Amino acid sequence: MVGEGGAARSGGGPHAAPAIPTTVAPDAGTLASLVSVAAADWIRAHPGGLVCLAAGDTPLPVYARLVALQEAGRVDLRSVFYVGLDEWVGLGYADRGSCLQVMADAFYGPAGIPVERRRVFDGLADPHAECAAVDRWIADHGGIGFTLLGIGLNGHIGFNEPGTPDQDGCVVVDLDDTTKAVSVKYFGAARPVRQGVSVSARTLAKADTVLLMASGAKKAPIIARLRAGADPTEVPAARLLGHPGLHLFLDREADGG
Ligand code: PGA
């Protein structure tokens, strides 16, 4: 039921973009299980490594499964360090839908990750100071080794939006109109978010393992553009193309099936 590999799946022709290694699951639940096993395998093999996790709706079911794997004795999630991928500037734990609230409630709390093992952006602090502090955390922990990402409808990864400068470290970003429109699904109501802070695409691309997850038919068009070798100024996820550790995890709908 699960398709592996990706040879020639992006279409033929002499100028076709190189295929990205891809796993296609029959449904979103199976997809989350496969990703949780891949993440647990990395964590087991890299004690003391630095893991960067996204807080979107797509990876959320992975976190419950990771906690279950820990409870079954198959991984110690406290054996690594964590860095948050991004945050909405101006939102904190008390704000439903902040990355801090989502990740604390879905993962860091249930997994029992001590505060000294994680550094997530504080959306209520000065964003430039936060970027500098998170940059230091990443450097102090030897760089990000593993990252689990979603992809926005506009091709963003974290808050690396179309047009966000390609630079090292963490970035303060003006949010794209698509991201502002989509934000309502996280907050349950419109919030006047204008900026985000994010680990940059270039720093994410230094991880040895980069898992990019997408589920649902609405993600099929952006996945197709990515696979066709989109311009990274238009589709930021394309900054990951050619990365030897990039692996797409899709359900059948996001795969275009
Ligand atoms: P989603 O977000 O998983 O909630 O669709 C993905 C993203 O914007 O990176």
Brief descriptors of the model:
binds 2-phosphoglycolic acid; Rossmann fold; 257 residues; 7-stranded parallel sheet; disordered N terminus; alpha/beta; 3-stranded antiparallel sheet
The CATH architecture is: 3-Layer(aba) Sandwich
Biggest sheet: strand arrangement: 1-10-9-6-2-3-5
The overall average pLDDT, rounded, is 93
Helix content: 25-40%
Count of DSSP strands: 10
Describe the main β-sheet briefly. Answer: 7 strands, parallel
Give the SSE map:
Layout (H helix, E strand, L loop, with lengths): L21 E4 L2 H18 L4 E4 L6 H12 L9 E4 L1 E3 L10 H13 L6 E2 L7 H14 L5 E4 L20 E5 L2 H6 L1 H4 L7 E5 L1 H4 L4 E6 L5 H8 L18 E6 L6
Parallel strand pairs: 1-10, 2-3, 2-6, 3-5, 6-9, 9-10
Antiparallel strand pairs: 4-8, 7-8
This protein binds 2-phosphoglycolic acid.
2-phosphoglycolic acid (PGA) binds next to loops.
